[in-house]
Write a structure and sequence with these properties.
The complex is a heterodimer. Chain A is α/β, with parallel strands linked by helices. Chain A is 27% helix and 31% strand. Chain B is elongated. The chains are: A alpha/beta, B alpha/beta. Chains A and B meet through strand 3, helix 3, helix 4, strand 9 and strand 10 of A and helix 3, helix 4, strand 5, strand 7 and strand 8 of B. Flavin-adenine dinucleotide (FAD) sits at the interface of chains B and A.
């Protein structure tokens, strides 16, 4: 089984992002960048499949500017075999990313694609489902457990009421939720080794995919801030305030 | 301009999030069709027909739609898309699973989790865990949108009188087999609908200690929520997670107990009307957004709070 994992380079989850001066976009020029946390989980799952012998090859792919190769290298250091960078300076929307991934999948015949359920910058939660649609494949989204048995996959998904278990024949798409696994820390020797692993660069044009946008970001603004409240001394005062001041109980 | 809303339901009842999506739809157009795709779900269609603002109910009743598998439902929605300018679904787990598949099949973008409608092609949506709000315009002639239910008032569930049209259904495509649902049983109100939510974090320390929260929730008729740390530690089930990647809630009263207030948690609850925080760390970020904060040990404060509620109920 050949596995492809999509890893996005995003502003680190600890950074508080703000709009830029003219409110045309977010200000991220000097922000710390990291691999999208859900994608770390996706990588970890693929590496475990390799270690378990269910995956024969595990490939990491990122799409975006040249610096995105950093997160591919991180994925290689975690144990992925090789990397692909689809390089462009244009802003990529989930539909475009899905089309580019579909082109790669068709070129190389992957059996399973694992993505994060959501990129923590655009918070779209779309790409995996779109990729499955474009390929006509089944989708196991928001996965908290994945079991591969020969050419079948059983996926347990987090839902609004608990969980749901699905089963499908490969090829297919899985998107990772937070509780799928706990990603390993990258060890220094592995970072060195990762530098020697192959990383292919390719452009959207070479993949013959139209990357023009469907959405225009007109403006970004800060949300209305809550004004800070007061501290109360004890339970008695709290109940009194909730009842007589806020009138919510 | 006609909007098609795809209903969230469980084959017997319409979920309240659908009512919010209908309100969003009526802000776009007076012509609002509502699709009920499910199995043995005619009771849902009947309830849907009474919702104010719904022009027509489309009922797709077939075994293939029983478990809302996106592989089966997406082609149905694609087939019904013609004649509509917007496809809307609440941003529930089902909505998030289904709508991007629909959008890609139609070769259009999707706008996720919108919180306001500026015009028929321009929408507001939170990005970066709600740190910023983006105004996004769609250039597609058909807009595929998921709607954050807490951002729109629910449409009136009674007073409408829409016709119910049966639409053509399809066989199971066989791409994906449903194995089972493991539903968390609870007698409490739905977390996303409750007027009061009592949430616990890592500070609770164990699953057993969540009983202290249960006692408080009982007195307030509240739903229970949790931070990711509490879910990851196995204190409560995953469907109680509030936040950027869990559920979004906006109750009248949100009580955060032993929760530090990470931005990812705030993303799911900061639109609550009144926020209370209980935390032993006076510098915990949760206090920056709390209307009322108590600094102290939750193991002292929770029992005191329950007792105080009892007392003041007896002495109005
Ligand atoms: C990609 C991503 C997505 C995420 N999505 C979410 C999400 O959807 N929802 C979410 O909640 N988190 C999410 N997180 C996690 C988030 O960043 C925080 O780690 C998490 O919210 C912390 O949970 P907590 O506040 O319960 O734990 P902690 O941060 O450990 O806080 C525990 C608090 O309890 C207090 N405390 C301890 N003991 C007591 C006591 N006896 N009495 C009173 N107070 C006490 C402490 O002072 C502390 O403030 C996400 C993280 C990532 C990276
Ligand atoms: N530019 C990108 N490069 C690599 N992976 C991506 C990119 N955009 C999206 N993805 C993948 O798609 C997932 C969901 O992203 P989104 O649909 O944007 O929330 C991410 O967790 C990644 O796995």
């Amino acid at each position: 089984m050949k596995v492809l994992v999509a890893v996005k380079r995003v502003v680190d989850y600890n950074v508080k992002v703000r709009p830029n001066g003219d409110g045309s976009d977010v200000e991220i020029a000097n922000a710390k960048m990291s691999m999208n946390p859900f994608d770390e989980i996706a990588v970890e799952e693929a590496v475990r499949m390799k270690e378990a012998g269910t995956a024969t090859e595990a490939v990491a792919i990122s799409l975006g500017e040249a610096a995105c190769q950093d997160v591919v290298r991180t994925a290689l250091a975690m144990g992925m075999d090789r990397g692909v960078l689809v390089e462009t300076d244009e802003r990529l929307e989930p539909l475009t990313v899905a089309k580019l991934l579909a082109a790669i999948v068709k070129r190389e015949q992957f059996d399973l694609v694992i993505l994060g359920k959501q990129a923590i910058d655009d918070d779209s939660n779309q790409t995996g489902q779109m990729l499955a649609a474009l390929l006509g494949w089944p989708q196991g989204t928001f996965a908290s457990h994945v079991a591969v048995d020969d050419d079948r996959v059983q996926v347990t998904r987090e839902t609004d009421t608990g969980s749901q278990t699905l089963s499908f024949q490969l090829p297919g798409v899985v998107t990772s939720d937070l509780r799928l696994n706990e990603p390993r820390y990258v060890k220094l020797p592995n970072i060195m080794k990762a530098k020697k692993k192959p990383l292919e660069k390719i452009t959207p044009m070479e993949l013959d995919v139209d990357i023009s946008t469907h959405l225009a970001i007109i403006a970004v603004a800060e949300p209305t801030q809550r004004s800070g409240g007061i501290k109360v001394a004890d339970a008695k005062e709290l109940v009194e305030k909730l009842r007589n001041e806020a009138r919510v109980i | 301009m006609t909007v098609l809303v795809i209903a969230e339901h469980n084959n017997s009842e319409l979920h309240a999030a659908t009512l919010a999506a209908i309100t969003a739809a009526t802000q776009i157009s007076d012509a609002v069709n509502l699709l009920i795709a499910g199995n043995d779900c005619s009771s849902v269609a009947k309830a849907a027909a009474r919702v104010q603002g719904v022009s027509r109910v489309l009922l797709a009743d077939a075994p293939a739609y029983e478990h809302q598998l996106a592989e089966n439902v997406a082609p149905l929605v694609v087939r019904l898309a013609e004649g509509h300018t917007h496809l809307l679904m609440p941003a529930t787990a089902n909505g998030k699973n289904l709508m991007p598949r629909v959008a890609a099949l139609l070769d259009v973008a999707q706008l996720s989790d919108i919180i306001a409608i500026k015009s028929t092609d321009c929408f507001l949506r939170p990005i970066y865990a709600g740190n910023v709000i983006a105004t996004v315009q769609s250039k597609d002639s058909l807009k595929v949108v998921t709607v954050r239910a807490t951002a729109f008032e629910p449409a009136n569930a009674e007073g409408g009188n829409a016709a119910i049209d049966q639409v053509e259904t399809s066989e199971d495509l066989g791409l994906c087999q449903w194995v089972r649902d493991d539903v968390t049983e609870s007698t409490r109100p739905d977390l996303t609908q409750a007027e009061v939510v009592v949430s616990g974090g890592r500070g609770l320390g164990s699953a057993e200690n969540f009983q202290l929260l249960e006692a408080l929730a009982d007195k307030l008729g509240a739903a229970i929520g949790a931070s990711r740390a509490a879910v990851d530690a196995g204190f409560v089930s995953n469907d109680l997670q509030v936040g950027q990647t869990g559920k979004v809630v906006a109750p009248k009263l949100y009580i955060a107990v032993g929760i530090s207030g990470a931005i990812q948690h705030l993303a799911g609850m900061k639109e609550s009307k009144v926020i209370v925080a209980v935390n032993k760390d006076e510098d915990a970020p949760i206090f920056q957004i709390a209307d009322y904060g108590i600094v102290g040990d939750l193991f002292d404060i929770l029992p005191a709070l329950s007792a105080e509620l009892d007392r003041s109920v007896n002495r109005p």
